[in-house]
Design goal:
Chain A contains 29 helices and two strands. Chain A is mostly helical. In chain A, a hairpin with a 2-residue loop joins strand 1 and strand 2. Chain A is globular, with a radius of gyration of 31 Å. Chain B is mainly alpha-helical. The chains are: A mainly alpha, B mainly alpha.
């Protein structure tokens, strides 16, 4: 059984890899039908393998380590391409392959007729391979291959419409901002190696007790820098909203359900190190809480359907880090999973809306779509309720667990940040729903004519995700703190809930969460359902705040002003410096030497230092550059080389006689 | 069977002189196509020979292999001593590989004086091989100097830029200036050997042989003098910041083939790991040397990357990125630990695929627009998707994306640097960010976005010959990136020996210290 499991583990990333090779190298030779079948088929096979592995891990509770081959080695360093599959990995594998499969199927319909159809699926499969390596690696470096690999695919897919300037810019931005985080991650890897002389998780975590508190803090913070970049947390969040330039399935898969949660995975995987450093934990929690709040405020006023969802993703990721920072690892993973369901659902449903409206993304030009695209409407509403946090849908259970954990561990500041964020989440999501689906239509007449429900290949994946968004929370995490997921992950992440929550307290916190979600809904209903004029009035009344939020606190402009522009200007200065000063010194030396050699130093150079006249010769040559000598240089080189040998003989003879 | 046949066969000499003999044969030919075919044949045979050496090379061994040793000028202790070990053997393969690609590239891009060009190219191959396989310092020096002659003519006669005469001269002068100092350093080594030998074994009074010189102790003060003399030779050639200003000129003004060789074959930094560090271990690990070298390396990493960011010409960008990469190599070398040395060595090889590869791409761009200025491009991915794809693959390798060769080398260097002193690695790692910035920004402006104004409507994508070059480079990039094992195994023995030598000297110094205290 174990051998079979090991084989299945090895196979999981192989299928998408084969599809990448086939579609990438031969994709232009066969039809689109073949290309997409290979793409989703391979992910489907990976999903089946994952199920097999998962059942084994669930049954035995064992973790599997499988070495594929020795990758980098020499001296005291050995790094294998090897996998570690335990319950934590399984949780991610299920999401990545399961949700990934659904999104691949959806893409067949969504990308139909796009140029570069095969290219799209090649990149998507490459993403799957990288993401699988990321969560399956048994050491930091395999994690890092996946980490940068998903970054590359993100780059390629954001820039999918590469002839659009905004897409090209967004792609580069995503990659470069991510690399800032990656540099921090690399430093963490070096620190780990210098402390443990290995990069394998199991060996590192076994000796983690040797770390001094300061070193643990340093490692944890460097790791977290990586997580901040990948998961778009403050202050490196700016790339994710721009990443919406990519096709919508990409936003769903990479920029909502899987890749951006890699940071959470990394923190949870390294919880043994984070647990040693209260300072790092507080940092994680505060950055998470701050981002949750910050991004939610921006989400309140955005007018692009995908951007609202993007800020909501940033905000939800903040909740996950908040959970990690207070030690509620299981709750965080739980939220990763439910978020994958409902956010993938929301993005794909948004994609279905965009598809129906021939590419329109501005919610000010939507409205009244509920009857025109009924399935999309229903499913989008499911997603909205799930993220807003109303029971019994998925988002309620996971978000509530994080918040309850914050409250019962006396992190009242974090709790209130999360609660306020939840209010805004509920508000902006229902605002989005109202503006998109209800009220009167604000569409172009031309667009309105063509509105149509999406084909089944797109709707069915939505239904599956809708179903998961409804029951996923109950299946995975009910009853709170003692659900199935808690038992499953317990051996890996430790039992986080050391606190004793009274049943009364738990119910009270749940009730508060429900009230908050309903309040957000109510406010949205009032502003965008009952009295649309009020919304505009408020926007005018608080126009300063409104503009600040609409322009995302001007963070991009600030970064341009503080980093990008000075960097370029300094670069231009260096360029001048290089051409004028450094090169000038070289020319100057040559010129001076030549000039000097003609004068009083002639005797010194040619007689006294006769043996060293090669130097004089070369300077002499240097000076002639201005005269642009055209030919006749060969004998000079020959002369110099002969002179050099002669010099050598001379020196040897001289010294030999000493 | 094969073993018996090849035993005693002077394969390194064959590798060394086949191109030169080939160049002489070309002289006799008149037909240009004949010249091309013959050159390619010679380059391919040369490549086959070097592959044979690589295959027969015993990995995980520090021993010198395929040794050929003939006395040349016994009175001065100069000998014709060739051999390869884990440090040099990969360069032999790389030189032969790149020469084949350069010949393929030059097939239809060099249109005048084809014969002379090919002769220069082959002569350059011989001299470069000589640098890599010589164990005698004088022999090495001769090849080192002779390298200049074909290089000079390649830049001057086949360069595309208006300033090519100036660039050629600058290149030659720079290198010559440095090598004079190096020659003095080599002489000092010989003199030291002589002084020691006169006391200990009078039968051999002179030697320029690397292996023999290594057996003789050199006083630390003298090591330092020699180190800095040799440093000038290697640093000018490498080029190490701030001796780099000849490089952008030479790469921009010279022909692509020359740029590939200059940027792809890191003879300067090879000099450090082949001669400076093993011959002068105490100097190499002295505080001053380590500090100066690493700080220069770190400056080069950041300075080069920063400069690359603002260049509007692709070849100038590549020149500065190459300076930045050399900074990594220098930092790794003078981390003086296993990972640092191994990473530097691998990176030198890697650059032969990535940086050299990018110069080929620059050549492909040049062939289409007669310039590599950014203003001539924009939105090219739509016109030439294959070219854009390979530019991305090779470019990502050069910025060290995991899965490509660049990552393995860069990671090892950074790890080694970090182990040596945390801030070496801490600063060097910033290069990772800048690297992504300059490359992707250029890619964004040249390949993505709407079609540039200067881009012609119809532009052909990569042709067969260009595909051959791009694909073979990509294969190497992924091979070393995903399965570097064969390459690492070749290096490991020699790297370990080098580390032991550095480490052993340290131990010896410690042993001596109590004795001194006793006095």
């Amino acid at each position: 059984m174990s051998r079979l499991t090991d084989l299945l583990i090895k196979l999981i990333p192989v299928f998408p890899l084969l599809a990448v090779l086939a579609n990438g190298l031969l994709g232009h030779r066969y039809s689109h039908g073949m290309a997409h079948r290979l793409a989703w088929g391979s992910v489907g096979l990976s999903f089946l393998c994952t199920i097999g592995v998962f059942t084994d891990v669930m049954r035995t509770g064992a973790s599997h380590e499988v070495v594929v081959y020795q990758w980098i080695f020499g001296g005291d360093l050995t790094i294998n391409l090897a996998y570690l599959v335990d319950s934590l990995t399984c949780a991610w594998l299920l999401v990545v392959t399961g949700v990934g499969f659904l999104i691949h199927v959806y893409s067949v319909g969504y990308m139909h007729g796009e140029t570069g159809f095969t290219r799209f699926f090649t990149y998507m499969n490459l993403f799957m391979v990288s993401m699988l390596l990321l969560v399956m690696g048994n050491n930091y470096l395999v994690l890092f291959i996946g980490w940068e690999g998903v970054g590359l695919c993100s780059y390629l897919l954001i820039g999918y419409y590469y002839d659009k300037v905004s897409a090209a810019k967004a792609a580069s931005k995503a990659f470069v901002v991510n690399r800032i985080g990656d540099a921090g991650f690399l430093v963490a890897i070096f620190l780990v190696f210098s402390n443990f002389k290995t990069l394998d998780y199991t060996k590192v975590f076994a000796q983690v007790g040797q770390l001094s508190p300061d070193m643990a803090t340093a490692i944890a913070l460097c790791l977290f820098i990586g997580a901040v970049g990948k998961s778009a947390q403050l202050p490196l969040h700016t790339w994710l909203p721009d990443a919406m330039e990519g096709p919508t399935p990409v936003s769903a898969l990479i920029h909502a359900a899987t890749m951006v949660t890699a940071g959470v995975y990394m923190v949870v995987r390294n919880h043994a190190i984070f647990d040693l450093s209260p300072f790092a934990m507080s940092t994680v929690a505060l950055v998470g809480g701050g981002t949750a709040l910050f991004a939610a405020t921006i989400g309140l006023v955005q007018t692009d359907i995908k951007r609202v969802l993007a800020y909501s993703t940033v905000s939800q990721l903040g909740y996950m880090f908040l959970g990690c920072g207070i030690g509620a690892y299981t709750a965080s993973v739980f939220h990763v999973m439910t978020h994958a369901f409902f956010k993938a659902l929301l993005f794909l449903a948004a994609g279905s809306v965009i598809h129906a409206l021939s590419g329109e993304q501005d919610i000010r030009k939507m409205g009244g779509l509920s009857s025109r695209i009924p399935w999309t409407h229903r499913l989008f509403l499911v997603g909205t309720i799930a993220i807003a946090g109303l029971p019994p849908l998925a988002g309620f259970w996971s978000k509530d667990e994080i918040m309850a954990h914050a409250f019962t561990t006396h992190h009242y500041l974090l709790y209130s940040m999360a609660a306020f964020g939840a209010l805004m989440t509920s508000f902006y999501m229902f605002r989005l729903t109202y503006l998109t689906f209800y009220g009167s239509s604000r569409m172009d007449p031309h667009t309105a004519e063509h509105v149509h429900e999406s084909p089944m290949v797109m709707v069915v994946p939505l239904m599956v995700l809708g179903f998961l968004s409804i029951v996923g929370g109950l299946i995975l995490g009910f009853p709170p703190e003692h659900g199935w997921l808690h038992g499953f992950l317990g051996p890996v992440v430790g039992v986080g809930s050391l606190h004793e929550t009274g049943a009364g307290m738990a119910l009270l916190l749940m009730s508060i969460a429900i009230v908050i979600a309903l309040a957000g809904w109510g406010l949205a209903h009032f502003l965008y359902g009952l009295s649309p004029a009020t919304a505009d009035r408020w926007a005018n009344k608080f126009s300063g705040t409104y503009r600040l939020l609409l322009n995302k606190y001007y963070v991009d402009e600030l970064y341009d002003l503080m980093f990008v522009e000075p960097l370029k200007r300094l670069g231009a200065m260096l360029d001048w410096f290089d051409r004028t000063i450094i090169d000038g010194i070289v020319r100057g030396v040559g010129w001076l030497a030549d000039w000097g050699s003609a004068g009083s130093t002639w005797v010194e150079k040619y007689i006294i230092y006769g043996g060293l006249n090669v130097i004089g010769y070369s300077n002499h040559l240097a000076a002639r550059e201005g005269r642009k000598m055209q030919s006749g240089m060969v004998h000079h080189y020959a002369a110099i080389i002969v002179a050099g040998i002669f010099l050598l003989v001379l020196v040897v003879q001289l010294f030999a006689q000493m | 069977m094969l073993e018996e046949l090849t035993a005693g066969f002077p394969i390194l000499s064959s590798i060394l002189f086949l191109p030169l003999v080939g160049a002489a044969v070309l002289w006799l030919l008149d037909d240009e196509d004949m010249v091309r075919t013959s050159t390619l044949t010679i380059a391919l045979v040369e490549f086959a020979l070097s592959v044979f050496v690589l295959l027969r090379f015993v990995p995980e061994s520090a021993a010198m292999q395929f040794t050929e040793h003939v006395r040349w000028i016994p009175a001065l202790g100069i000998s014709y001593h060739l051999a390869v070990d884990g440090i040099s053997v990969l360069f032999v393969g790389l030189t032969a590989f790149l020469t084949v690609l350069v010949v393929v590239y030059s097939w239809d891009t060099i249109r005048h004086q084809v014969k002379l060009y090919m002769m220069c190219l082959l002569a350059l191959e011989t001299t470069t091989m000589g640098v890599f396989v010589s164990l005698d310092l004088i022999l090495f020096f001769v090849f080192w100097e002779l390298m200049l002659i074909p290089s000079y003519f390649l830049i001057k006669l086949w360069g595309g830029g208006a300033e090519r005469h100036y660039a050629a001269l600058k290149f030659v002068v720079y290198t010559l200036l440095g090598s004079v100092f190096m020659l003095v350093g080599i002489s000092l080594l010989n003199i030291n050997f002589h002084q020691w030998a006169s006391l200990h074994h009078p039968d051999q009074l002179y030697s320029f042989d690397l292996l023999e010189l290594m057996t003789v102790p050199v006083p630390v003060s003298q090591q330092l003098v020699i180190f800095w003399l040799m440093f000038l030779g290697f640093a000018f050639k490498a080029p190490v910041f701030p001796f780099h200003t000849w490089l952008p000129d030479a790469l921009l003004e010279g022909p692509i083939g020359m740029a590939v060789v200059l940027a792809g074959l890191k003879v300067g930094t090879f000099g450090f790991i082949r001669f400076s560090i093993p011959l002068l271990p105490d100097a190499s690990k002295s505080e001053t040397v380590v500090m100066v070298m690493v700080v220069l390396g770190l400056c080069a990493i950041l300075y080069g990357a920063w400069m690359a960011l603002v260049q509007a010409d692709f070849r100038r960008l590549l020149a500065y990125s190459s300076i930045s990469h050399l900074g990594f190599v220098v930092v790794g070398l003078f981390a003086l630990n296993y990972q640092g040395l191994q990473g530097s060595l691998l990176t030198m090889i890697n650059l032969g695929f990535s940086t050299a590869g990018l110069f080929f791409i620059a050549g492909f761009l040049y062939a289409r627009q007669q310039t590599t200025q950014l203003s001539a491009f924009g939105g090219m991915a739509k016109q030439v998707p294959r070219l854009a794809t390979f530019l991305l693959i090779i470019g990502l390798a050069s910025i060290g994306l995991p899965g490509t060769n660049g990552f393995v080398g860069e990671f090892l260097i950074l790890l080694g640097a970090f182990e040596a002193r945390w801030w070496f690695g801490g600063i060097a790692v910033l290069g990772v960010i800048f690297g992504a910035a300059y490359f992707l920004w250029y890619y964004e402006r040249s390949m993505m976005g709407p079609l540039g104004n200067a881009v012609k409507g119809a532009m052909s994508d990569l042709q067969l010959r260009e595909m051959v070059i791009a694909v073979s480079l990509s294969v190497m990039i992924f091979w070393i990136g995903l399965y570097p094992s064969p390459f690492l195994r070749i290096m490991n023995g020699s790297v370990q020996a080098l580390v032991d030598r550095l480490h052993h000297e340290k131990a010896a110094a410690l042993d001596r210290s109590p004795v001194r205290q006793g006095y």
